[in-house]
Protein 1
Amino acid sequence: QVQLVESGGGLVQPGGSLRLSCAASGFTFRDYMMSWVRQAPGKGLEWVSIINHDGSSTNYSDSVKGRFTVSRDNAKNTLYLRMNSLKPEDTAVYYCHGADYRGQGTQVTVSS
């Protein structure tokens, strides 16, 4: 069955960095566009970033553009999100999404 397992979240101070990972299984990862979405406390889902099947094309929401970088390793069936210059408003549960599935999420908290 399809599984998307996120990891790498945690507590970080403003201005800090984190790298999230999403391990995919149960489908042909290299054939699918993948996304990161997030949900802040008390808010709806917000799209963050998308990457095409081979990593040659990416796009970002205005709120993270220039600070976050999405990438993928198709040999490892893994999606990444490098997050720099983190702000308190980046606090959310981050989910990877692809093949019509979403993972269980990883919590990112940005606080001093």
Protein 2
Amino acid sequence: EVQLVESGGGLVQPGGSLRLSCAASGFTFGIYDMSWVRQAPGKGPEWVSTISSGGSITYYTDSVKGRFTISRNNAKNTLYLQMNSLKPEDTAVYYCNFRDYWGQGTQVTVSS
């Protein structure tokens, strides 16, 4: 059974940082591209970032370029999202995703 379990969310002040993690199990993690997707209150899902299976290629939506860094550890079956210089508009539930599989999400709230 595929499982994706996100963690690391929380409440942070504007300008702060958080590191999200996604622990994957039930599939061969190292052969799939992985993504982070977020959903803000009252809005639809927004793609944030994707990393290639080997970790050498990354993509970001424009609004997070230069602030967020996606990475992975295939030996630990874990996906990460380092988020710096956080803004209130980054407030959302963040989901780990590949193909049609999603985690339960972790809430990120950026507020003073």
Protein 3
Amino acid sequence: VQLVQLGAELSRPGASVKVSCKASGYNFSDYYIHWVRQTPGQKFEWMGRIDPGDGGTDYAQKFQGRVTFSADTSISTAYVELRSAKFEDTAVYYCALELLRWGQGTQVTVSS
């Protein structure tokens, strides 16, 4: 079982950024993918989750309306898109299979 994420993404304030998570080694449609971020102050924030099988999503209240989860079962890849990026969105974004197996994280930097 493996979750692979790209190393880094750069965004400007007000722009959108999309992070991918490619899964392998299991049936992608059968398990939730969670998204968690770790801020520079080391705080972990659970952003929400997606059921790749039916596209059902749950969002943490803080991210409701500004974040969208999606999944492409044909390529076993999940995505999180963050809109209207802010400086404080700078963090490492992790995908996690049922919070048990984690990707290596994608550093998202929001900078002007």
Protein 4
Amino acid sequence: VQLQASGGGLVQAGGSLRLSCVASGRTFTNYAMGWFRQAPGKEREFVADIGWSGTRYRDSVKGRFTISRDNAKNTVYLQMDSLKPEDTAVYYCGMRVYGRSAYDYWGQGTQVTVSS
């Protein structure tokens, strides 16, 4: 299985970025997809996920971030608007089998830096 994340970069506070993660090697529709992030010196934290039951977000990104998926392209997206310096982190996409809480596969991460 390969997860290839892209779309990170440097942006000013208030700006936007769209992350993409392309999956290969598994039947994409059998998996829920999620985004996590890890800032320097901090634990990896949940950002958002999407599956049969819908979408979920951590409270600090609700109303600013939108997760979506295109099953025809085996791709999950994270649209990030109104970015804040505290959103700075390496963002990772992950896949998990429906019904399980643990993620089975992870992408390599993409750096998002928000300047004030």
